[in-house]
Amino acid sequence: MANPFVHVELNTTDVGKAKEFYGWLFDWKLEDVPMGVMGTYTTIGVGGGTGGGIMQHPMPGQPSFWLSYVNVDDIGAATAKAKSLGATIIREVTPVAEMGWPSIFIDPTGAALGLWQAKKA
Length: 121
Description:
Blueprint: E1 5-12, H1 15-26, E2 29-34, E3 40-45, E4 52-56, E5 65-71, H2 75-84, E6 88-91, E7 100-106, E8 112-118
Parallel strand pairs: 1-4, 5-8
Antiparallel strand pairs: 1-5, 2-3, 3-4, 6-7, 7-8
């Protein structure tokens, strides 16, 4: 499938409570990864299928939500295309350590979606 979903991420107001709930509910393998100034990111290992992460919500006062990411070959071009089609960019293309680049937009219907381009090995 072109442009598959590759990652899901919980942006939560209470990381500890979320980790306890989802760890018990699904028996996911949760691993904390220090991310420097961004704090700690908890990876979600699910075995097979799409994995994800849990992080402190970056927008204070907003409710917790799950965000899906779609794989793209060119993060800059895909982000620009989304904008040209009426999306509002809420996170510009940003490097993430040695892993790749995400961006996040709100589509014309109000739904949030992330784009992801992994660094080439």
